[in-house]
Write a structure and sequence with these properties.
149 residues; 5 strands; alpha+beta; 3-stranded antiparallel β-sheet
Length: 149
Amino acid sequence: MNKNKLDLVRRYIKIALKGTRLSNKMFAISLQDKATTLLQMSALQYLKDHPGATVGELANELVMSSPAIAQMTDRLVKTGWVKKEIDQKDRRITHLVLTAIGEKEINAIPNELKEKIDEVFSYISEEDLETVVKILTKFVHNIEERNIQ
């Protein structure tokens, strides 16, 4: 890799990390006076879309390690938004299900989140967003294709 490309990659990593931190901070939403992160919101949304998903499936979707996903799901259980159910056929498998409270809270998020998204992305054209999504999709696909971890 030539020096210019290496410098660009370093800039990308720095910007990506900063963007992630700022996004988490900005999009943090208070649910029942309990702060939640973008990652937790993503988990709740995934469980809404995939009722009964296993802990492993959620970890795979969010690209998290087993200890990290265990800690996050324990917190979601503690808040009352998620419950764990042991698989009746294979007791080694744990399914995650949104509770009624969790369902209510995840359904309330879009209005608050939409306002913040509108505010942040109002200065970026759809064309620019399409370009960013296209490039990041290629980046992720390249990593997944090579099974880089």
